[in-house]
Amino acid sequence: MDRIRIVGGNELKGIIPISGAKNAALPLMIASLLTSDTLTLENVPHLADVELLLRILGNHGVDVSVNGRREHQDGSYSRTIHFTCRTVADTTAPYELVSKMRASFWVIGPLLAREGKARVSLPGGCAIGTRPVDLFIEGLQALGAEMEIDGGYINATAPKGGLIGATYNFPKVSVGATHVMMMAASLARGTTVIGNAAREPEVVDLANCLNAMGAKISGAGTSTITIEGVSSLSGARHRVLPDRIETGTYAMAVAMTGGDVVLQGTDASLLDTALEAIRRAGAEVTETDGGIRVVGYGSEIRPVDIVTEPFPGFPTDLQAQFMGLMTRANGVSHVTETIFENRFMHVQELARLGARITLSGQTARIEGTSRLRGAPVMATDLRASVSLVIAGLAAEGETMVSRVYHLDRGFERLEEKLTRCGAIVERISD
Ligand code: UD1
Predict the structure, then answer these.
(1) Distance between Cα 102 and ligand 1 center (Å)
(2) Does the active-site annotation cover 421?
(3) Residue span of the signal peptide, if any (predicted)?
(4) What single-letter DSSP state applies at residue 164?
(5) Which residues of the chain have a pLDDT value below 70?
(6) Whole-model pTM above 0.85?
(7) What's the pLDDT at 124?
(8) In sequence order, what E strands does 243-355 have?
(9) Which domains are delineated in the chain?
(10) Are residues 203 and 178 in contact, defined by beta-carbon separation less than 8 angstroms?
(11) Whose CA is nearest to atom 25 of ligand 1?
């Protein structure tokens, strides 16, 4: 199993190209199941989760052809992938595949809408809480589907003649359930109104792509989304939006280690709340032509309290990284997690580097220290693992992060991007 070795202490200087967003690419790829034409996606990141979803889609009958696998002059690296699902070969998504990545459960929406039925294993994914699927079940039931759980699978069946548009208010904001409802309702008869919808930029990206395919969706990015069903969707070409979590992660790395980095090919408006928190912590964050410049001062980090919330609040996917930053602050800060109930597994690993963190319910109290010291640590989930990497960059001496397969799920060429900016980071394959 690969490990990542970091020798901390270097400031980061240079340019980091930001990849296409994993959390947008996954639902966009799944949308290819809705049409027999070709959906072409540009700027698809090269990540373990994307590769796994390619296999899952292949199982359902999607032909995939990849091109543009080339490095650009600025070091960016994006792929264009063509997806064609002439006919759905299989409406079952098996346990062996779905259990490895929660987002693959989302195929339930397009399969049900296009084929009238789907049998999908209950999901797996990062171990950051119980992560139920009740909202998906209720939402699809509102569109007329029969949903039955049997032997670890959900059997979903649409009424004769297909799903029927309806008004449904989510009792809780869910990104995945909003994606699935938009995809399913696009091919339903009549109009669907989703209340309390997720407002994340990735939801807007999916709506834009579906509209380019012929769907009639309005209101994405607000909490009420209206979808007028159409009888079929066509192909389209769509560019995956930049990864706001990768952007925020590197911005926090610079704030923590010090240095001056331009995050290229990203958009500050995707992560206003997180950038504001980084500014309050003392780093300079400015918009540049086609990116964001972050100047950090390393040793002068101010304590800032944050609470994770659905978009446009502070993203839960940046919580671990921000806690990493706060371990170096000159004072006490609090980080409160409201989205997932078990997303503090990085706390004990950060403590191994010398961080002083105490947990009380859903809030962590972080007493900053001017010195972190490198240590062996273990990656526990995707975002937690990158918080250990950035903490390692700011720590004295060597940090060895094991179980880095978590990182490979969501961060494209992390070692290379950091090394180009002067960090000492290397992958060790055992
Ligand atoms: C997506 C993101 C993930 C991010 C999360 C919250 C992808 C691939 N993943 O995950 O990186 O951390 O949004 O921004 O885009 N819930 C229920 N019942 C359900 C569904 C969800 O109770 O049926 C709960 C979850 O347990 C969680 C909360 O709703 O407490 C939000 O989860 P959700 O927005 O659905 O997260 P994902 O879409 O899985």
Answers:
(1) 9
(2) no
(3) none
(4) B
(5) 68-76, 124-131
(6) yes
(7) 57
(8) 259-264, 284-288, 291-296, 306-307, 332-336
(9) 3-19+242-428 (3.65.10.10), 22-239 (3.65.10.10)
(10) yes
(11) 131
